[in-house]
Amino acid sequence: ILNVEQSPQSLHVQEGDSTNFTCSFPSSNFYALHWYRWETAKSPEALFVMTLNGDEKKKGRISATLNTKEGYSYLYIKGSQPEDSATYLCASGGATNKLIFGTGTLLAVQP
Amino acid sequence: ETGVTQTPRHLVMGMTNKKSLKCEQHLGHNAMYWYKQSAKKPLELMFVYNFKEQTENNSVPSRFSPECPNSSHLFLHLHTLQPEDSALYLCASSRSGTMEQYFGPGTRLTVT
Residues near B59 by Cβ (< 8 Å), separated by ≥ 6? Predict the structure, then answer.
């Protein structure tokens, strides 16, 4: 993998459903993996910065895991709510502050 | 609120105009960034400033000219742009040596 790739591109779920999406990134020279949440017309908001293989981070109903050897991270949302509707971005970051972003997963949660 | 503000939020300009985008951060950070997001493409890094010095220019055309007069302010001067430059321009800041970047809400630019 040469670029950061996210799947699916979009996702529609019902309120209360749990969901997850994937970020794939180059595993060579890995430094850090970032997850952002971006609501329409607002600023992207940092969710997690992950650096260690096997790391798992959690913020409320949202959690993320990291596999640096195979180059992927999963983001999980438990019991989705309409306010979770947003685009979720991941980015692979190097020591020089340069972030390479994926195109994002657009999540729509129907009440 | 992320502590990073951008003005204007929307801008329409002709190809012969000169305009500037402004970014201000109130977080005490010393690194600032310009990103561009075109339709259906990932956020693309344009410029990085650390302690007011430009440390990254990602092969950006010279019609985009950044300026960082101090660690709290960042400008993007625009001159003779093309319609394909229409995009969302995002500013971000961070503390140098740390990884987490804080973003502004962006300026939606339309070049006619």
Answer: none
Using CA coordinates, name the residue in chain A closest to B37.
A103
Angle at A109 between CA A68 and CA A77, to 5 degrees: 30
Q: Is the CB of A40 inside 8 Å of chain B's CB atoms? A: no
Contacts of residue A44 in chain B, CB cutoff 8 Å? 90, 103
Number of H helices, E strands in chain A: 0, 11
Q: What is the pLDDT of residues A16-42, one digit of tens each?
A: 999 999 999 998 888 999 999 999 999
A12 in B contact zone (CB under 8 Å): no
Residue A49 Cα, gap to closest chain B Cα (Å): 7
Quote the tokens at residue B64.
């985009």
pLDDT digits (tens), chain B, 112 positions: 779 999 999 999 999 999 999 999 999 999 999 999 998 899 999 999 999 999 989 999 999 999 999 999 999 999 999 999 999 999 999 997 777 899 999 999 999 9
Q: Which residues in chain B are closer than 8 Å to A97, comparing Cβ atoms?
A: 31, 33, 48, 50, 56, 94, 96, 99, 101
